[in-house]
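Researcher: Predict the fold of Amphi-Trp domain-containing protein.
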Amino acid sequence: MTQSDADAQDETESDLTLIREGRDFEQEYRLSAAEAGRFLVKIGEQLQESDELTITGDEWKLPFSFGEPVELEVEYEGYGEQELEIEVEIPGRTDETAPSVE
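Model: Structure tokens for Amphi-Trp domain-containing protein follow.
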């Protein structure tokens, strides 16, 4: 990567809207199965390797420090138009500590 490429990448990243605590955010995508699979694999790798996740869209960046346990729900509708729904809920990490016992 040339210096101008690195500068352009830094400039692009700094132009992204940072999604922070205290703000709600939602974005939907309609993807091919292959694209969705690549996205889920990358999420899975971040869940395995770290306790922080960073998801970036065209105009936004969402850093997220997560805790345990992660909730996974699998729902299948087998009548009419069949549908499989997989939902992952990842709780935020807390920095709170337990009170002292004396």
